[in-house]
Design brief:
- The protein has 113 residues and is an all-beta fold.
- The strands form two sheets. A five-stranded mixed beta sheet has the order 1-9-6-3-4, with no helix packed on it. Strands 5-2-7-8 form a four-stranded antiparallel beta sheet, with no helix packed on it.
């Protein structure tokens, strides 16, 4: 059991956003599982300098909208780090997120009412 470490909370304007991940810094073999609201989006996915993009739906109201990055390994340079780029219409957010053997990095989203 790992602790979830909330990196950022983002209020978005659209109910569908894109999330793109890259290995952050040196390409060192980081591998992740990406989980959104307890559903696996991808598992044992290697992070590189090539974009890894997902589209997620944001539920309105006080619903939980949590994206979790789980480290499958730590690469050759711990911890497991990623650059996460989020597109919400014209808005763009850049987040540096990390995960270790003890913590998962997470980002939560809320739909602007």
């Amino acid at each position: 059991k790992r602790n979830d470490e909330l990196v950022k909370e983002i209020t978005v304007d659209h109910d569908s956003i894109s999330v793109t991940l890259y290995d952050n810094g040196d390409i060192d073999g980081d591998s992740i599982t990406l989980i959104y609201n307890d559903k696996i989006l991808t598992t044992h996915q290697r992070l590189t300098d090539k974009p890894l993009t997902f589209f997620i739906k944001i539920k309105p109201g006080n619903n939980r909208n949590e994206l979790l990055m789980y480290a499958e390994n730590l690469g050759s340079i711990p911890p497991n780090t990623a650059l996460m780029i989020i597109h919400d219409g014209e808005k763009r957010y850049e987040i540096n997120i990390k995960s270790t053997e003890k913590t998962n990095g997470s980002v939560s989203f809320k739909l602007r009412e």
